[in-house]
Amino acid sequence: MKKNIANWGNYPVIEADVKPFTLVRELQQKLSASNETIARGMGRCYGDAALSDTVLSTLSFHHILGFDETEGIIDVESGLTLDAILEFIVPKGWFLPVTPGTKFITIGGAVASDVHGKNHHAEGCFRQHIIDMDVMDHTGNIITCSPFINLELFQATTGGMGLTGIITRVKFQLKKIETAYIKQKMIKAKNLSEIIELFDTYSQYTYSVAWIDCLKSGSGFGRSILMLGEHAKQNELPYALQKDPLKLPKKTSLTLPFYLPSFLLNRFTVSAFNFLYYHKMRKKEINNVVSYEPFFYPLDAIQHWNRGYGRKGFVQYQFVLPLEAREGLVEILRKINGNGHASFLAVLKIFGEDESLISFPMKGYTLALDLPVRKSLFPFLDELDKLVIQYGGRIYLSKDARMKPDMFFNGYPNAERFISIIKTFNPGKFISLLSKRLQIRS
Predict the structure, then answer these.
(1) Which of 120, 217, 300, 378 could covalently link to 116 via disulfide, CB atoms 3.0 to 4.6 Å apart?
(2) End-to-end CA, the chain
(3) Dihedral sign of CA atoms 365, 368, 371, 377 in order
(4) SS3 426
């Protein structure tokens, strides 16, 4: 069925033939009848990685195949969402080993993007918790791969944006928890130097992330709020919560029903938002206990929040720089500060060591910005790209909608090997707008 679709940034929008499936044999039939195609789950990647002439939708392929409650090992079909998994495992005392900033993604999407979270410096990417998984190649054959079986396929699939084949099943290790709550510490930092010092000081925390004001200049350049967290133990909860420590959070029903006018997104409104957000925290430090929902998924509280960037959509620009390239982070932030483009959401994190074939993280600083689409945006991001490469960094494929091929090949040192593995398992069936744009596959 042909229809207009876009991923979470609402840019670009294309017409595609969307084909759902519920069974493996149905997927094999639809794959055989398709030419250029790509798998797509919730469409929560921001750019064009899950867009193609034909899209094989995994959303009806969403069953739990097995669960070892003693060991915390779960085996699921690729269309199951993190939200559904959490509803199943949290009451049983388990949690996701790694989670991005939204629970509304499929497990297949989590693997294809090799998602990271607030705990990358401590517990790595999602792939590091996979026991094994199945991938359907261009012929419809299903291949099991893992860190020990068919290693090249495993390496190229985790972070490979769906270009090796269709992930059909994933078995992975969960994390044991006593409660559904997080012991949170929030600390205000007056500038960029202080927030970096705070990341170092509190590096022992499992979870850490900072909201950063990219528009403040002068002595407050880079002012931030650091958010730290640990899974709360039962005896650390307020007495009223100890009776049912694994109770799931209440579902929210807030939604943004329409696209906001794009003129509302400008330097003045973002500056005002940043001022209020920073100063609403009156104390230097706050310690409290919160449900896992607002800690991990604050934006999920508002459905369709992406409409806030207007009908033209937005791009998320996320880059990582090596730890030793701190001056590069300063230079990029100053360039953003001096430009007319403004982001309500600017998130700074620290990555730990990470050696992989094609995954995004490296030991260093990562900054993510949501920027509304307008004519002057893409030339400006091209300028930022040059700085990212100059300082030895790269752009996250799962968030990208516009970078050029040389940026990809310069940023990912294993790009040629990645492409050679793709050709082995996918001579030309699995092709996306991203793979064409970056000249990975044409």
Answers:
(1) 120
(2) 24
(3) positive
(4) coil
Nearest-angstrom CA–CA distance, 415 and 322: 18
Question: Do strands 73-77 and 94-95 pair parallel, antiparallel, or not at all (unpaired)?
Answer: unpaired
> Could you tell me which of 269, 145, 163, 277 has the C-alpha nearest to residue 211?
277
Q: What CA–CA distance (Å, rounded) separates 322 from 362?
A: 7
Q: What confidence tens digit (pLDDT) does each residue in 196-240 have?
A: 999 999 999 999 999 999 888 899 999 999 999 999 999 999 999
pLDDT of residue 91: 98
Poorest-pLDDT segment among 21-25, 258-262, 373-377, 401-405 = 258-262
Radius of gyration of the chain (CA): 21
pLDDT at position 345, please? 78
187 vs 302, which has greater pLDDT?
187
CA 176 to CA 188: how far, in whole Å?
Answer: 30
Can you tell me the mean pLDDT for 178-184? 98
| Pairing label, strands 37-40, 54-57 | parallel
Nearest to 273 by CA among 263, 261, 264, 284: 264
Check: CB of residue 20 under 8 Å from CB of residue 37. no
* DSSP E strand boundaries for 191-298: 207-212, 224-231, 285-291
Cα distances from 44 to residues 10, 101, 242, in angstroms, run: 10, 11, 35
In the chain, where are the structural domains located? Answer: 64-177, 181-407
SS3 206: coil
What's the rounded Cα separation, in Å, for the pair 82 and 139? Answer: 29
What is the arithmetic mean of pLDDT over 367-387? 94
Query: Is pLDDT of 6 > 60?
Result: yes
Is 70 exceeded by the pLDDT of residue 296? yes
DSSP letters along 6-21, please?
A: --TT--S-EEEEEEE-
* From the candidate CATH numbers 3.40.50.410, 3.30.465.10, 3.40.50.1000, 3.40.50.11270, the one assigned to the domain spanning 64-177: 3.30.465.10
Alpha helices in 133-252 (DSSP H): 151-157, 192-201, 239-242
SS3 321: strand
CA 391 – CA 354 distance, rounded (Å): 18
CATH class belonging to 181-407: alpha beta
pLDDT digits (tens, 9 = 90+) for 408-442: 999 999 999 999 999 999 999 999 999 999 999 75
